[in-house]
Amino acid sequence: MRSLSRRELFAQMLGAPLALSAATTPTAPVAIARCNSYGEDQAALLGSMFDSLGGLEKLVRNKTVTIKLNLTGSPALKFQGRPLGVTHYTHPSQVGALAHLLGRAGARRIRFVESCWGTPGPMEEYMLDSGWNVRAFENAAPKVEFENTNALGSSKKYARFKVPGGGLVFPSYDLNMAYQETDVFVSLAKLKDHATCGVTLAMKNIFGITPASIYGDDAGKDEPNENPTKGRVETCHFGKRQPSSSAAPELKPASSRESGYRMPRITAELVAARPIHISIIDGIETMAGGEGPWIRGVRLVKPGLMIVGTNPVTTDTVGTACMGYDPRAQGAGAFAKCDNTLLLAEQLGAGTADLKRIEVRGVPIGDAMFRFSL
Amino acid sequence: MLLALLLLTNFADWIPARWTSSDPSSLELVRATPINCLLLEKEHWSPEFLDKAAGLGIATLGVVRPGDALPKAKLTGLMLEGDFSGGGEPAAGELPVIRVGPRAHMDFAGGAPVVGTHQGVWPGINVTEEDAAKAAPTGGPWIDTNAGFLRFARAATKAEIWIANRPPPGTAFPTARYLQAIGDAAIVGARWVVSLDEDFSRRLLAREEKALAGWETIAAHLRFYQNQKPWRGFTPRGQLALVQDSASGGLFSGGILDMIAVKHTPVRAVPSRLLSDEFMEGARMAVSVDPAALTEEQKETLGRFTRSGNTLLSAPAQWKFPPVTADKITLSKEEIETIDAIWKEINSMTGRRNLGARLFNVSTILSSLVGAPAGTPVLLHLVNYSDYPVESITAHVLGKYTKAMLHEPGRAPRSMPVYVVEEGTGTGIDIDKVSTIATLVLE
């Protein structure tokens, strides 16, 4: 895999020619901070990063805030017996810290969500299965809730989210109502490589909002299966089947079935359909070489970084650069085996992937860079 | 002979191990442990060794296989290992005999003080090459265990149950794998016959430092269960009963009992032969694996069970468990698929209900919920089958308890805070860490 050298990074920031025009897409500043341990005060760290971006209160006061965690894969799958939060899951210390900060900033309702792998059961139990102290989260702020969005959950119907511009793979997505009943949507993600999307950052985390009841391998043919037990590989990664016909089918069933083609597009259009307002990327401890222990060759790394932004494309672009990759690479670097999710999201107007248009606050990228590729 | 008779009265206290030396000085290694019964191959029946063992109060059982001649030796008894159904059984005379044969030949109703088998899977996490690398997230690992079979065996007889499987040939296991084997049997009230791999055994007899440390750890784990003798009289507390028999899956590893256990649902085995109101007391749900094989009386027992408001799931009449044979203890992939239908029904019936205890963050752990005849204490035995400690376990145990103590080998018991589970499903306990085995004692 080809990595971004510091010289190339600075060349980009100074305005080297770009393959795609990014001049008209939105931009927003991104904060980078150093943090070497989850034992450090995560609330203080996140609080100062939000302050550098203009403050959390103006974003969340009196709002319903929905936070998508990254709890990818079954909690039973641990890497070398390590706690999930230091390998491929969101770290629980950040969940508690974020709940505390949101509560302090005046959020009306704080709702943590995830489409929990292979189950429609309560998210609280999934978190207990992850070794998390759910009672501590509940006590971190008033009105903290949890919703497993892998099926209907506590709602009676799904919400339809149309992809602006008509979509790349699907024209719309039927999602749990939690994604509609929110004023502010947060992606609390992990700094990781990804086998089929290049990088797993704030945007790829959003793939997990799709309910397996509709997009899962055991989804109902016509109606959602409200008791899903499998992942979403056949429908989403490889397009071997269509989602339940209650949802919109693929636009082009004859298009490529390669996951490196499909998954970046699905990720980008999900971000366009369900915009992310706050992106938080945990790169304190994580894994490199893939997004979870099921990927051969993954290894533990400690980049010691936190990245926060209010635009998911700019935040992921900075995150990608911090991983030592060229965010605009095509067929190289992190995107050697897949299309570039950042550029696809940029084309959908979600934000710019052009580093020279992104203001970085805090630690400069060059100082923060931790090379994920060997 | 006197010693033999004295020891005979204490079968329940025998802690057996295979021993691969006839050097009397090697008994010093045994003396430092709770092991008090050695299984010896014929080449180790030396008079000096047997005399010294007798002097130390250590029972010696000569291992005899079909067709073996039986030379005179001052043994405490014999262990007949293997399939003697075709003959070849030696005349043991007055020597007590323990039979350790194929599972299919275990005689649970014969009145023997010890019923054993040499057949077992090696307990541990089963990671297949197929599971090791996937393009997308997958489910959790499967645990190879004898616990399901041993639950059934314990329920089927009042005899002591020994499982005398050896490490797979050519293996050199780390100590943790032996601790898992000890716990795998002990949590359901059975005994694994300690059997070291060739490399460990050689290093131990040579007094290599690392092997001695491993041996001490094994001893501490044996001692952990032995020091709590009353626990052995505790009975299963799960509200789910699985009614089956030797012919309907009770003798298999990886069968329905193990499938339920891997889901962390407390389950009690109810051998059809012993099915009674007393056996079903405390159960709220039952699964009858082979209803066609039940007698009218047994059917009436289950009828009373359902008329009392409890739930019964019966396998389809035409459905049959794969047949049991002397050389088979696990199910093939195809056979597992045949039990998938009933498994889905069981899964659907039990759902998220608390049928005694619900455990979280325990994908590499198996448990056993038992209780004292008087009601309390209740024990939650835990065995971790991974090579790494498991941290942050949560247990929701049905019932109200005010005190929870975590017992672990080599550590003083620790008090665990208890809290009421909001859903009203009992008492919550958060356990910080389990290395290999632990027991939560609730009062």
Describe the structure.
The complex is a heterodimer of chains A (374) and B (443). Chain A has one domain (6-18, 29-213, 247-368). Chain A is an alpha/beta fold and 374 residues long. The longest helix of chain A is centred in the C-terminal third of the chain and has 15 residues, at 259-273. An eight-stranded mixed beta sheet of chain A has the order 4-3-2-7-10-13-1-14, sandwiched between helices. In chain A, strands 5-6 form a two-stranded antiparallel sheet. Chain A has a two-stranded antiparallel sheet with strand order 8-9. Chain A is globular. Chain A contains twelve helices and 14 strands. In chain A, helix 9 packs across helix 11. The model of chain A is unreliable at 9-20 (pLDDT under 50). By secondary structure, chain B is α/β, with parallel strands linked by helices. Chain B has three domains: 2-227, Aldolase class I (TIM Barrel, Alpha-Beta Barrel), CATH 3.20.20.70; 238-350, Rossmann fold, CATH 3.40.50.10140; 357-442, Immunoglobulin-like, CATH 2.60.40.1180. Chain B contains twelve helices and 24 strands. Chain B has an eight-stranded parallel beta sheet with strand order 1-2-3-4-5-6-9-10. In chain B, strands 11-17-18-24-20-21 form a six-stranded antiparallel beta sheet, with helices on one face. Chain B has a four-stranded parallel beta sheet with strand order 13-12-14-15, with helices on both faces. In chain B, helix 5 crosses helix 9. The longest helix of chain B has 18 residues, at 209-226. Chain B is globular. The interface between A and B is medium-sized, with 34 and 26 residues.
Biggest sheet architecture of chain A: 8 strands, mixed
Number of strands of chain A: 14
**Level-1 CATH class name of the largest domain in chain B:** Alpha Beta
CATH superfamily of the largest domain in chain B: Aldolase class I
CATH architectural designation of the largest domain in chain B: Alpha-Beta Barrel
Strand order of the largest sheet of chain A: 4-3-2-7-10-13-1-14
Approximate shape of chain A? globular
In whole angstroms, how far apart are the ends of chain A? 8 Å
The percentage of residues in β strands of chain A lies in 15-25%
Shape of chain B: globular
Q: Could you tell me the mean pLDDT of chain B?
A: 92
The proportion of residues forming helix of chain A, as a percent range, comes to 25-40%
Rg of chain A, Cα atoms, Å: 19 Å
Which consecutive residue ranges of chain B, at least 5 long each, have pLDDT under 50? Answer: none
Mean pLDDT, all residues of chain A: 94
Tally of structural domains of chain A: 1
Class computed from helices, strands and strand pairing of chain A: alpha/beta
